[in-house]
UniProtKB/TrEMBL annotation:
Gene Ontology terms, MF aspect: 2 iron, 2 sulfur cluster binding; oxidoreductase activity
InterPro entries for the chain: 2Fe-2S_ferredoxin-like_sf (IPR036010), 2Fe-2S_ferredoxin-type (IPR001041), 2Fe2S_fd_BS (IPR006058), Beta-grasp_dom_sf (IPR012675), Cbr1-like_FAD-bd_dom (IPR008333), FAD-bd_FR_type (IPR017927), Flavoprot_Pyr_Nucl_cyt_Rdtase (IPR001709), FNR_nucleotide-bd (IPR039261)
Domain FAD-binding FR-type residues, every copy: 91-190
Domain 2Fe-2S ferredoxin-type: 3-84
This protein's UniProt keywords: Ubiquinone
Gene3D superfamilies xref list: 3.10.20.30, Nucleotide-binding domain of ferredoxin-NADP reductase (FNR) module, Translation factors
CDD domains linked to this entry: fer2 (cd00207), flavin_oxioreductase (cd06189)
Protein name: 2Fe-2S iron-sulfur cluster binding domain-containing protein
Amino acid sequence: MTYKIEIMPSGISFESESNILDDAIAQNIYLEYSCKSGDCGVCSADVLSGVVINENGKAVSSGKVLTCKSRAETNITLKANYFPELSNIKQQTIPCKVSSVTYTTDDIVILTFRFPPSLLFEYLPGQYIDLSFNGIKRSYSIANANVTGKGIELHIRKVPNGKMSTQIFGQVKVNQLMRMEGPKGTFFVRDNIKPLILLATGTGIAPIKAIVENLVHSGDEREINIYWGMQYKGELYCTELFALAKAYKHINVTPVLSREETYIGCKGYVQDIVCDTFDSLIKYEVYACGSLSMINDAAKKFKERQLPSDSFHSDAFTPAKQI
């Protein structure tokens, strides 16, 4: 059966016969989402009318559901965020070739990719792609701003016994052919003038780098505060952000190390350092990318610092399903 899905407060509607989020995206209607695995909770929506079969197979006529794991049982009305900014960006599955391989640490490699000359791949900084190689598919954030049209950069961490990273580390060479699907996700800077707090753990710095590069390229001079969590100083591989902080007075980068005992800078966790630094977050907008535990803890603690609920945006790195 096909049912009508109405999204409030935007008033936009579409038809769905299976997964609500997938059917919306197929019709170029982008509701808020991130992992699409039901783990991060970003795609949560309120059921205002009708019946939805939720991620647990239960019928829901009021309350919250995850659109990435739910389907309509009747015509329904949902309260959910909708992003018309993404409606003109086409999701594609495209061939790509590795143009460079750079090992920045023992367990992080930066791969850059080029596309066929006639192909146009558009995205908003902060979004991610699904990379397919040797029958394995994994999600990676795009690490560069879309300002040259010459390809994209991915930061890939080696995962113990990880199927994809085992295929890549020490194996992948320049000119290796792969495939990408995307862009995906609704993690991008909203169109306003609020000062920014950007949080990252690990390779979650990748989309933050893309976002900052784009803000600089567009001449945006709002205050940008970057907090990057790693375990050790030697892991702070993203030198481009430190260079931008030196070049622009409105950009600040604060490394936060959790295991470097002799480090004289900020120690602990990024969300705690933000809380120690700002008495109130009421005027700020926050973008957080990295571990789900960091994001959940930051959302809770920042709410206590008066951050409006609609000013917290996140992209959680969740464990890949082993396929």
